[in-house]
Amino acid sequence: MLDTTSKYFPSIPRDLITLQTNQLNICGGYYVDITAEIWEDVVDLLNVVEVTHAEITLPIPPSPLYAQLTDRTARTHPKNSTIVFPSGEIRSAKISRTVRVDELLAEAGEILGRRPADIKAVWDGSIMRDDRSIGSYSIEDGDSITLQAGPLCFAKPVIYLHSPSDIDVSVKLSLIPEWSLSVIYPVVPTDDYRQHLEWNVRTHQDGSLTEHNSGLHVSYLFWEAKTNLQAFPRSPASKPPPADTFNPLTSSLDDTDSIVIPVDKVTVYLDKALKVLGLHTEARTSFITYWLPSILKHEYIALRFVPQAAYERAASLNISPQPDVVTRVCMLFKGICKEHLANWPNAQMQAQNDVAWWVDIVGVDPTRAGDVSLFRVLEWGGVEVLI
């Protein structure tokens, strides 16, 4: 078999010739190797045989993140691909053309600590089907496969409206495609994609609100959103987004933009930080008690607050009449184990600094936010980054 093939394909060394087919029922539409042992059994069943040049898998230094993935998927005829991690991290891996996409996602799920169902692979602008093999796509060496992990929940954003007199207010919320609304209260209609809504309320001087459609008397407006895996980020070749863009699909924290503290110091730190950012006592208490159960699961916490301008691009508020001051506070955080503290030297030092530095980072005006003579809007929310 190989002698005849070598005769017609002299440019391929005999020991690097691989014969493959996808014509047998057992193949399920995927290309599989035809070995010498089964050649006589299948040759009469085939009309076409694909002759390929098997690549030698050279030993490469395993990356800590993808060593497991590389070891278990670098088989015959691997593709040298780059795997784009949900946080934006890029790693190289050799992936066999016979590996199914669901196998790749299962490996990724083990590494990331996520269910495979919560991960999608994106190539060439499209989500890859779980039941297809890598070889069934026209992936070339050097191509990128982007892993999307989700859905992540942007939890309990609440919107307070404080006005010096009772007024009627329209509050419109619009999300980018990477988000879809999952819960809202008071309940009002949304668009088909659950990315746009409008509340019409009457403010009261005690800070409470009356929603016109339902007549509900509430303390604040509430919404939550989950990441939408169908809305994937631009390919690496695309024009990069502005530096002040916040994308929930690629939310991340690193040593340069975050602080890291032991979990037993988080509540005091948060109370101080939220106070300088303009949150009143009830808002600070609600914020901390909402996130505390998630925080206490970890040894250390890395956290940062998103610049308000970047957050506004992802979840814009259009309020009429226009408020005198808008304060929107969005926190990202993740658990850090003691063994990984060495990766966060700057963030640990930053935690020793005065919390007032967050005022400039977020871009808020605490003085005006506390002026009771003004029409003020305050919102807080957060995301636990699981990767």
DSSP helix fraction: 10-25%
Radius of gyration: 27 Å
The main pleated sheet reads as: 7 strands, mixed
- List the helices and strands in order: HEEHEHEEHEEEEEEEEEEEHHEHEEHHHE
> Could you give the distance between the termini?
49 Å
Strand content: 25-35%
Q: Give the overall form.
A: elongated
Give the strand order of the largest sheet, numbering strands 1, 2, ... along the chain: 11-15-9-20-19-17-16
Low-confidence stretches: 55-76, 232-240
| Overall strand count | 20
| Count of DSSP H/I helices | 10
Structural class label? alpha+beta
Look at the structure and give the mean pLDDT: 83
Task: Give a brief description.
This protein has helices spanning 2-8, 39-42, 67-73, 101-112, 266-276, 281-295, 308-314, 345-350, 357-362, 366-369; strands spanning 17-21, 32-33, 50-53, 78-84, 90-96, 119-123, 126-127, 144-149, 153-162, 168-175, 179-185, 196-203, 209-211, 217-218, 221-227, 259-262, 300-305, 315-320, 325-336, 376-384.
Provide structural commentary.
- The chain has 387 residues and is an alpha+beta fold.
- It is 20% helix and 31% strand.
- It contains 10 helices and 20 strands.
- It has helices spanning 2-8, 39-42, 67-73, 101-112, 266-276, 281-295, 308-314, 345-350, 357-362, 366-369, and strands at 17-21, 32-33, 50-53, 78-84, 90-96, 119-123, 126-127, 144-149, 153-162, 168-175, 179-185, 196-203, 209-211, 217-218, 221-227, 259-262, 300-305, 315-320, 325-336, 376-384.
- The strands form 4 sheets. Strands 11-15-9-20-19-17-16 form a 7-stranded mixed beta sheet, with helices on both faces.
- A hairpin with a 5-residue loop joins strand 4 (78-84) and strand 5 (90-96).
- Helix 3 (67-73) packs antiparallel against helix 4 (101-112) and helix 5 (266-276) packs antiparallel against helix 6.
